[in-house]
Every structure is written in C-alpha cells, then in structure tokens.
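Fold it.
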Amino acid sequence: MRTLSIRQPWAWLIAQGHKTIENRDWSTGYRGEFLIHAGAGIVQRDYREIAAHLDAELGILVPPFTDLDRVPRGGIVGVATLTGIVTESDDPFFQGPFGWKLANATPLHFIAAKGQLGWFDHPRPAALKEAA
C-alpha cells in the first residue's frame, strides 16, 4: 500500500484529522488511500515550538513530547485519502509550494516500520484489510 513518511507532530495531526493539507516541494498524480508513517527523526526543541504555536494560534493541543505512546515515531500511525493538489489555499497549515489535500484520516494502532523519502510501499495493515 502506498505510504508517506511525515515527521511528528505533523503525522499525529493528520491522523487525528486536525491537519487536512500536507505541504510538499513536489506534486504527485496519485489520488487515493495511503498510510501515514511517522518518521523516526525528531528535534525535541522544534516539536515543542510547533506544539506551542499550534496551541496559541489554532487551539490544538498536541500531546507533550514526553508522551511518546501517543506520538510514536518510526512506524505507521494512520491512514488518509489524498484527494487533490493545490498551489494556493487559505488553510492555516498551507505553506506550499504544493498542498496535498487530505480527507478521511483515521489513526491506526502503531506498526513499527522503517520509512524512506517519497512514496514507498508497506503491506496493507490487517485492520484495513477487513474494510477493503
């Protein structure tokens, strides 16, 4: 199944349905369901600054950095549907140059998995096989 690696807390925000646009430097012709992989790398100071900004500007409370069971890294954390690409948007998360429009985000139980840049394939989780 198509999979995209995204750093935390962005992966958590998408899986929870708070962030419905993902910024990328590149476009894609793909449309459809994909797995959200939370990248293993994270800078504690950056995470805390992002969390403070999201709370102050958007009223979104991101789990604290120390609460890694709720903000896991290095694996699959959710599924979403890529519905389109925009180059302009009023969405507060849009920074461009390409905004990937997301819908139907759902968190999944964490599945440890190695990520990589760009799209990559990961086996479809059992939780999704029932719905396929």
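Strands lie at 2-6, 21-24, 32-38, 75-86, 98-112, 119-121.
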